[in-house]
Structures are given as C-alpha cells and as structure tokens.
Design goal:
The protein has 269 residues and is an alpha+beta fold. It has three domains: 5-71, Arc Repressor Mutant, subunit A, CATH 1.10.10.10; 92-160 and 240-268, D-Maltodextrin-Binding Protein, domain 2 (3-Layer(aba) Sandwich); 163-233, Periplasmic binding protein-like II (D-Maltodextrin-Binding Protein, domain 2, 3-Layer(aba) Sandwich), CATH 3.40.190.10. The chain is built from nine helices and ten strands. It has helices at 5-17, 20-27, 31-45, 61-89, 105-114, 132-135, 200-208, 218-223, 253-268; strands at 50-52, 57-59, 93-98, 119-124, 141-145, 153-161, 163-168, 214-217, 229-233, 240-247. The strands form three sheets. The chain has a five-stranded mixed β-sheet. Strand 3, helix 5 and strand 4 form a beta-alpha-beta unit. Helix 1 crosses helix 3. The termini are far apart. Keywords: DNA-binding, Transcription, Transcription regulation. It comes from Streptomyces noursei.
Length: 269
Amino acid sequence: MDLDLRKLRYFASVAEHRHFGRAAEQLYIAQPVLSRQIKSLERELGCPLFVRTTRSVDLTAAGKQLYEEAQQILPSIAAAVRRVHDVDEGVQRLAVAFSPGLHVSDAIRAFTSHHPDVEIDVVPARWWEQDRPLRDGRAQVGYLRRPFDETGLRIVPIGHEPRVACIPAAHPLASRQELTSADLDGERMLDTPQRRTLTLEEKFELIASGRNIALIPLGVARSYSRPDLVHLPVTDAPGIETCLAVVADRPEKLLRDFLEIATATLRRA
C-alpha cells in the first residue's frame, strides 16, 4: 500500500496531543473530518492505532510504532521539500543541530562573516536522539554531546563539559559549595535512560518537587536556571565530551568550511 502523508500527519498530531479536538484545532480541520481520516488510515493499515474512551485517547502498540516512524518520516519529507525549493530559488542553506544547553551561535557568527549569503537554520536535538536531525535530513551538522549513535557519522571532538548536581533548593545538600559522588549515595537519582522522552522542563519539575536529584551538563544548568533549584559541582563526576558531527559521506565545500570554522571557534570558547 502507498502511505498517505496527509493522513500520517493527521495521525501524528492526534498521537502528540492524545486528543482529537486539540489535534483538529492545530490542523485547522473539523474534528469529524479528522476522525474519518484516522479511521481510514486504520482500515488501510489493517490494525487499530488508538484506544478511544470517552475521556482519553491512547496509542496501541501498533500506534506507538507508527508514531516513532512518523517522527522520522515527516521531518525527512519536510527537509527534502525545503532542499528542492532552495535549489529552485538558488538559496544556499546550512542547518545546524544543537543539544540543549550547547551554544553554537559563536560558530555561526564566525561562519557567516566568511559566508554572508548562506542562510543558517538551527534545529534543537532531543537529548535521547541527538543524531536524529542528521539522519532524517533536517540538519547537515550537529553540535552534540556524547554518547549517541555514531554509526555512519564523522565526529570532530571539541572539548569536555562538567556535570553538576541539580538539587531542590530546600534539600539539605543545597547549602554546600560542592559535592562528591559519595555525597549522593542513597539519594533518589532521576533515571533518565528509563524515561527517555522526559523533557527538560518535566525533569526539573520532578526535581523541584523534592523527589529526585539529577546530574546534568553545566550548559543545561546555566540555560535553565530557576529559583527553586540549586546546581552544585560534583568534583569527581566524569565530564561529558562535546563534538561536532556530520554524516560521513557529505563532501560539500560549504560544510567543510563550517566544520573548520566551528571547530576553531568552539574549541577556543
């Protein structure tokens, strides 16, 4: 069967909102029309995608799988369409992905001083799938933190970033100037690998509620400061390696120039 991209977009919106009404508002279509399109997609696929009740909409196992696939397919299609338009209009464009709390602006300024006619886009990279924008075509280069899947990527090391303990302001350890790993023994650490879709905002809400502590990169701590949280250096915690990453078989001169300029700029920073 041929997958209808319009229906896939409709499905992704419902999956994101877990609500037909809010999804319909976002898509600017009537809710009955959206419901019919989703039912049509389910018939075409031969399996239910949602469990519907009077109060909630949840994904089935098949729905969860399709949502993961849609998060790769739809951005890739959008990026491909944009590249086609750029070629038609004679636009040179470079898209740079970045991990939360990593600032690539200095490198972009240095690059644009040499290439003022190049359009620059920035693409946030989610912490649990930092390499995704490179693989689905939304970005040509990424300023990322290891570890991530490096298969098929060229990696240029930049430096190391300290990790700090993110602690509720009312916690007994919050008055300390610095900590060691031993100070955190027995504390309830937020196990992010088990909750990989947790956003930074959700993570900080959980910590601020007094139930958890987390080790986070210093750049994230500086970018998301709030009065009910304290960030303390952990003197013996290993640092996190930062790097630039590109798809290994990308030979464009523009990309090579950006890598050269960004590497020198970010290493100095």
